[in-house]
């Protein structure tokens, strides 16, 4: 089965490069790597095929198709081989957990060198505009008030920054569809400041306005997001490490993964049972390939259970803490 990719990397011959380019809609053969010749010429056909994969039933009230699309937005320092590995692992783990919808990657032009952090962040900002113009508007144009195909977003690392900037840009453009919303937004290892995610932050108000719920998975053991990291020297504490600020909106919540990650990282038995694959820096990227995270994300996307009674969480006061299940 082909993989769906929205790619904003530039091209050189029949290869993609780590610079911004025009938005291309790709269908990539199973186990293959993306190439410009995978781009479709008929975007409407691409969307129809994506929606067909996303639909898994009918709404019991309206009889309309019901389905889910999860858009994965990767972080910095990700070449296309890593992006595809993560997309395929994520999809496999979600299907195992019970997910029946589609998974599509939004592939922006990050490099494959760790020292490209600042350039990648600049490209992420530029890419956010493409996400609005060529993707958000496109999905919005296919939605109606009774649309039962929910669109969700998963942002990893700098991918969370791409999503936030995209939503901020969206309110500065004309999207002529009042029903434009995404359902669930989930952030993992999010490389944006915690303070910027407050309810009164100008930069995040659009993000909260256009989603049903935002779930931030935080981990104080994430060394990539530590303040002493030379790439982000002088930056404020990151929301993927310290969690959301106290004055966040009610529709936003933290799932604290610190305790679970500590056990996962120190206990070989737990790691063998829970971690199907590890891609990249483990403390920053353990989520994709982990069965507990996949189960929690699936319940989040499904939305049938209240945030406090999802089995992979326990509540301590106002805190939700990720926990193991058998």
Topology:
Layout: E1 3-12, E2 15-28, H1 43-54, E3 55-58, E4 65-73, H2 80-97, E5 102-107, H3 117-141, E6 148-156, H4 158-170, E7 182-188, H5 205-209, E8 211-218, H6 239-242, E9 252-256, H7 258-266, H8 268-274, H9 282-285, H10 291-302, E10 313-316, E11 319-322
Parallel strand pairs: 1-5, 4-5, 4-6, 6-7, 7-8, 8-9
Antiparallel strand pairs: 1-2, 3-4, 10-11
Helix pairs in contact: 2-10, 3-4, 7-8
Account of the 3D structure:
It is a single chain. This protein has one domain: Rossmann fold (3-Layer(aba) Sandwich), CATH 3.40.50. Helix content is 33%, strand content 25%. The protein is built from ten helices and eleven strands. It has helices at residues 43-54, 80-97, 117-141, 158-170, 205-209, 239-242, 258-266, 268-274, 282-285, 291-302, and strands spanning 3-12, 15-28, 55-58, 65-73, 102-107, 148-156, 182-188, 211-218, 252-256, 313-316, 319-322. Helix 3 crosses helix 4. The two termini are 30 Å apart.
E-strand count: 11
Any low-confidence stretches, pLDDT <50, length ≥5? none
Structural class: alpha/beta
Shape verdict:
globular
Relative strand content: 15-25%
CATH architectural category: 3-Layer(aba) Sandwich
Kindly state the mean pLDDT as a whole number?
Answer: 88
- Which CATH class applies here? Alpha Beta
Series of H and E elements:
EEHEEHEHEHEHEHEHHHHEE
Evaluate the radius of gyration.
Answer: 19 Å
Oligomer: single chain
What kind of sheet is the major sheet?
9 strands, mixed
- The helix content, as a percent range, equals 25-40%
Measure the end-to-end span.
30 Å
Q: Indicate the CATH topology.
A: Rossmann fold
In DSSP terms (H or I, runs of 4 or more residues), the helix count works out at: 10
């Amino acid at each position: 089965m082909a993989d769906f990719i929205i790619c904003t990397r530039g091209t050189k011959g029949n290869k993609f490069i780590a610079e911004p380019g025009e938005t291309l809609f790709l269908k990539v053969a199973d186990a293959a790597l993306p190439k410009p010749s995978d781009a479709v010429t008929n975007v409407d056909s691409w969307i129809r095929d994506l929606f067909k994969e996303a639909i898994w039933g009918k709404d019991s009230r309206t009889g309309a198709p019901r389905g889910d699309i999860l858009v994965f937005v990767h972080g910095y320092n990700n070449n296309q081989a890593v992006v595809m590995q993560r997309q395929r692992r994520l999809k496999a783990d979600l299907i195992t957990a019970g997910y029946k919808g589609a998974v599509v990657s939004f592939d922006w032009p990050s490099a494959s060198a760790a020292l490209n952090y600042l350039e990648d962040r600049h490209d992420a900002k530029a890419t956010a505009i493409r996400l609005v113009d060529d993707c958000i508007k496109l999905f919005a144009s296919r939605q109606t008030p009774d649309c039962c195909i929910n669109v969700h977003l998963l942002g990893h690392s700098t991918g969370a920054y791409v999503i936030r900037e995209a939503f901020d840009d969206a309110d500065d453009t004309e999207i002529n569809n009042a029903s434009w919303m995404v359902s669930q937004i989930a952030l993992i290892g999010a490389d944006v400041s915690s303070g910027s995610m407050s309810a009164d932050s100008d930069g995040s108000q659009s993000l909260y306005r256009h989603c049903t719920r935002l779930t931030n998975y935080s981990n104080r053991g994430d060394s990539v997001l530590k303040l002493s990291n030379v790439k982000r020297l002088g930056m404020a504490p990151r929301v993927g490490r310290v969690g959301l600020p106290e004055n966040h909106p009610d529709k936003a919540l933290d799932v604290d993964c610190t305790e679970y990650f500590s056990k996962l990282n120190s206990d070989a038995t737990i790691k063998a049972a829970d971690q199907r694959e590890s891609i990249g820096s483990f403390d920053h990227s353990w989520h994709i390939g982990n069965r507990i995270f996949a189960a929690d994300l699936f319940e989040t996307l499904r939305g049938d259970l209240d945030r406090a009674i999802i089995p992979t969480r326990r509540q301590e006061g106002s805190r939700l803490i990720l926990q193991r299940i058998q």
